[in-house]
Amino acid sequence: MLKASLEYLHPQGDHSFLLRSFGPEAFDAPYHFHTAYELTYITGGRGKRYIGSHQDNFGPGDLVLIGPDIPHCWKLEPTDSSDAGAIVVHFSEDTLGPTLLAKTEMEAVTKFLERAKIGIYFTAPISDQIGKRLDSLARETEFYRFTGLLEVLQQLSDDVTCTVFSQQDTVAIQPRASQQRISPVFAYLVENYRSKVSLEEAASLAHMTPQAFCKYFKKTTRKTFMETVMEYRINYAAQQLIQTEKPVSDISFQSGFSDVSFFYRTFKRKMKLSPLNYRRRFMLH
């Protein structure tokens, strides 16, 4: 049964956090979660990132911090895989220690980490600055790597241009029991929304009847199950319209729609523009 898998993270020796660089293989990771904070800087490659129920495009310079237990994954576009890479930091509140976090000097960082529990997205110039700093930290000794992490967190906490993911768009604010029930459903959506999606299969992943599942899903996400499926498909189609020159009909089928006319109507209702006009708007910029 498909589900959001738990990843176990073990810093080497007595190290307090993990700092690693990854190539294209890292983007094959399934929709998963862990008990650590994760700071991810994308060095190359483009695709879709999925955090809780939130989805968005990513590319070089993308910087995201997410809190513990939030299911997530990054999926590459096949045409953008050769130079794909990321620098990833995993740390916990134990990394800093409750005594240190309680100090006045750490007040901004402590509040920042609380905000980050549902996810925060950063853009240039701060994302590029942090990306360069993370790259340099890999060559530091253990002590300066640790103090460098503190500097990075302080710098991020000072950024006023960051975007906190909407609580409405994430499963992170759900109680643990509800997270365990809804996460397999989003794992199923992430892997299957571009093909055939079955309400019955999604309901079975949540151990519910289809009728009970529909009520539960809307109460939890404030959207119906099919609204969420269509949102995933339309967002993927929008990405393809901007980043490729594929015919609209091909994009329609590759996004999970079996009827081009229905795709046109759904896209226009969601994006307020037809697929062709949406593409033309971005070609002008």
From TrEMBL:
<dbReference type="InterPro" id="IPR011051">
    <property type="entry name" value="RmlC_Cupin_sf"/>
</dbReference>
<dbReference type="InterPro" id="IPR018062">
    <property type="entry name" value="HTH_AraC-typ_CS"/>
</dbReference>
<dbReference type="GO" id="GO:0003700">
    <property type="term" value="F:DNA-binding transcription factor activity"/>
</dbReference>
<keyword id="KW-0804">Transcription</keyword>
<dbReference type="InterPro" id="IPR009057">
    <property type="entry name" value="Homeodomain-like_sf"/>
</dbReference>
<protein>
    <submittedName>
        <fullName>AraC-type DNA-binding protein</fullName>
    </submittedName>
</protein>
<dbReference type="Pfam" id="PF02311">
    <property type="entry name" value="AraC_binding"/>
</dbReference>
<feature type="domain" description="HTH araC/xylS-type">
    <location>
        <begin position="183"/>
        <end position="281"/>
    </location>
</feature>
<keyword id="KW-0805">Transcription regulation</keyword>
<dbReference type="Pfam" id="PF12833">
    <property type="entry name" value="HTH_18"/>
</dbReference>
<keyword id="KW-0238">DNA-binding</keyword>
<dbReference type="InterPro" id="IPR018060">
    <property type="entry name" value="HTH_AraC"/>
</dbReference>
<dbReference type="InterPro" id="IPR014710">
    <property type="entry name" value="RmlC-like_jellyroll"/>
</dbReference>
<dbReference type="InterPro" id="IPR003313">
    <property type="entry name" value="AraC-bd"/>
</dbReference>
<dbReference type="GO" id="GO:0043565">
    <property type="term" value="F:sequence-specific DNA binding"/>
</dbReference>
